[in-house]
Design goal:
Radius of gyration: 13 Å
Order of helices and strands: HEHHEHH
Strand content: under 5%
Helix content: 40-55%
Strand order of the largest sheet: 1-2
Shape: globular
DNA sequence: GCTGTGACGCCAT
DNA sequence: AATGGCGCCACAG
């Protein structure tokens, strides 16, 4: 049985519109687990390959990519393609963060 | 059912 | 601004 938290997280991630991003902590908070940022990361890691999640729209609270190596490059270029602007590998959250409708 | 782990976040230096 | 340490919790082994 998969936790409701996990399902909520997946649903929330799927709702992120193009050109916007959300942070791990924000998603976890909305899903009902204020301290579940790490679970969000874990969910992405395990599900993004199977599910069709816009995983590249999820970044950390500092507005930076949490992945190193090639995956990080891929994520960055995907975001750039959505007109999201990087300034020294950092995104302006005040401008690009998506505020979830409910809660 | 106990233990380690992680694409994190926050506060104290 | 940069680092380090601790907390928190679902999931795999």
């Amino acid at each position: 049985m998969i936790e409701k938290f996990t399902l909520d997280v997946i649903h929330i991630i799927k709702s992120i519109p193009k050109g916007k991003v959300m942070t791990y902590g924000q998603i976890a908070f909305i899903a009902g687990n204020p301290f579940g940022a790490r679970q969000v990361a874990r969910i992405l890691h395990s599900m993004s390959q199977k599910e069709q999640l816009p995983w590249h729209r999820v970044i950390n609270a500092q507005g930076k990519i949490s992945l190193g190596g090639e995956m990080g490059i891929i994520q960055k270029s995907r975001l750039v393609d959505e007109d999201i602007i990087f300034k020294n590998d950092r995104i302006n959250l005040r401008k690009f963060q998506y505020h979830y409708p409910n809660e």
